[in-house]
Design a protein that fits this description.
Layout (H helix, E strand, L loop, with lengths): L1 H12 L51 E8 L18 H17 L1 E8 L1 H13 L7 E3 L2 H9 L22 H7 L15 H4 L2 E6 H6 L5 H6 L5 H10 L17 E5 L7 H5 L5 E3 L5 E3 L4 H14 L5 E3 L3 H6 L3 E7 L13 E4 L14 E2 L6 E2 L7 H18 L1 H9 L7 H11 L4 E2 L1 H5 L4 H12 L3 H22 L3
Parallel strand pairs: 1-2, 1-3, 5-8, 5-9, 11-13
Antiparallel strand pairs: 3-12, 4-9, 4-10, 6-7
Length: about 475
Amino acid sequence: MKKVLSVLFAILLLLPAFAACGESKTNSDPAENPGENIQVPEAEAPAETEPDLYANLPTGDYGGSDFPLLQYEETSAATSTICVEELNGESVNDAIFQRTVNVNERLNITIDFTKTSLSDVTSIMSSSVTAGDDHYQAFWQHSTTAVTNFLQKGYLLTMNGISAFDFEAPWWNRNAMDSIRLNDRIYMAFGDINYYLFDFQSIIICNKPFIENHGMADPYTLVREGEWTIDTFLGMVAQGAEDLNGDGKLGGKQDRIGFTGYKTSTELGFTHAADVELFSRGADGSMVYDGVSEKYFDVVSRYSAVLGDTNYAEHNGDFLGRFRDDLTLFTSCTVGGLSTMRDTEFDYLVLPFPKYDAAQEDYISFITNQIQPMMIPITVADPDRAGVGLENLCGESHKLVRECYFDELVNYKYVRDQDAIDIVRMLYASDARFEIGHIYNWGGVENTITDALAGKGETFISDMTRIEKVMSKSMQKTMDAISG
């Protein structure tokens, strides 16, 4: 695990960074760096330069035409946006601004960005598509709303046939796209053009003073040694419960408990981290319900026994506030949610969700359904032009914005120690996934899973049997909508 963290951290540091995001070393004192005075023999061949990662970005001249984009404004704890209106001295903001300027100049277009509410994006784009209007070249919407209001109505253009897109390029997250793809077509894309994909990756935060004061094992050491597992985590959750109000009972509002979280959001990370699934992909790319495996039932049963006990855990409510008030040992949240922790008076640790057991090789990151996929409406008259503009925006974001995001929002602004930085970067480079039932929620499967994790583990198999017919019909409806 130490080697994995070190390698990933080193690789990510080599990514191109916006000039304002790194420190220049051109003014270093030769006396302090004597190696700088060593003369390289003239006969020595110069080091080979890396190929230009951005040399193959598509080009074009679009005569100064407008390139309208639409996004809803996320009201949860998050940091990202696609475009900004002006420079303000903040590195991420200014990098986004410069990225847009660069693309405007390269393609001779005018990117026209609109940010509005979630409901307005639905009404604006629905009206636009039904009217056959070629205005917005792309839009971003909450993933579940995108499925019900656009994908299932046939309002989205498949992006596979647009030659400008290179979805194997590092500025796209192909793994995230494939995790919610229903056949061989890409209707919803994720990439560096929008950093909500990072904001809504799930983590567990831990009360560091409690760990130290109670002589508990250091979670960072457990993570590095591959021992951060379900059993280890749940044992610590049980230890985290304390009767602080002196009434002889556990689980009161003024007592400390072991875990808090929000059921239908980050808590789905527990099954993903254990590498269990209810669905697989058939030969034609369509989703298949596999039933509840023995391992899947084992995972939900173990979590249910502890997280379903109100002495040890609480779900929903002010779960982040309870952590800030020093009344919780562990809380699950998103990386963006760390922005609410800035004024927390005690130090906290940032951890991945636990593995199934020590034999499992990797930690797996879970992405909540609050992220915004990039979509192209089916009414766009020139898909190739749309693809050229979006590919350039995504590539320039990778070049200018990505490291600024990490530096400003991860490196000591959201977290407080190098171990936490390493954990977050490891998760960003991991096999990050969506829970497909979380995105599509066929037959209410999302709530069935989260209810099992939070106390209904014993009835999980019968509950899944009860919804299976409705779930199958809902799955078929979605597949029919994209089969044309």
